[in-house]
């Protein structure tokens, strides 16, 4: 299964409501067979521009990142589900590159002999 990173911007809410939205999002991933590796809060910030979503205009939001492995078949279904969620302002799904081995990363080469 490929590795993905889900970056979501949630509307500004109190901590219990934010936790409920994150729990709902992670449960959605798990129901579809994903393996969640990590959930990271990137903090609450002022949005770079006003976002109109579900008949409301938002100026602040909470930024979160979810790292997970999942089948490529669930990607469009997951994004459709998140677009319909009234608490999610902007879902973005990125496919992460596979980890490079140390030899590929550092450009390790065989030493050439002088002769």
From TrEMBL:
The lineage of its organism: Eukaryota, Metazoa, Chordata, Craniata, Vertebrata. GO terms for molecular function: small ribosomal subunit rRNA binding; structural constituent of ribosome. HAMAP family: Ribosomal_bS6. CDD domains: bS6_mito. InterPro entries: Ribosomal_bS6, Ribosomal_bS6_sf, Ribosomal_S6_plastid/chlpt, Transl_elong_EF1B/ribsomal_bS6. GO terms for cellular component: mitochondrial small ribosomal subunit. Belongs to the bacterial ribosomal protein bS6 family. It comes from the Eukaryota. One of its GO terms (biological process) is translation. Pfam families: Ribosomal_S6 (PF01250). PANTHER family: MITOCHONDRIAL 28S RIBOSOMAL PROTEIN S6, SMALL RIBOSOMAL SUBUNIT PROTEIN BS6M. This is Small ribosomal subunit protein bS6m.
């Amino acid at each position: 299964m490929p590795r993905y990173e889900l970056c979501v911007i949630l509307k500004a809410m109190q901590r219990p409501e934010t936790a409920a939205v994150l729990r709902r999002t992670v449960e959605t991933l798990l129901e579809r067979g994903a393996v969640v590796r990590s959930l990271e809060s990137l903090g609450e910030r002022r949005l770079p521009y006003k976002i109109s979503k579900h008949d409301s205009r938002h100026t602040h939001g909470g930024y979160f990142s979810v790292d997970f492995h999942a089948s490529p078949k669930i990607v469009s279904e997951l994004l459709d589900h998140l677009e319909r969620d009234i608490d999610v302002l902007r879902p973005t799904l990125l496919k992460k590159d596979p980890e490079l081995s140390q030899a590929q990363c550092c450009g390790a080469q065989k030493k050439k002999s002088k002769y």
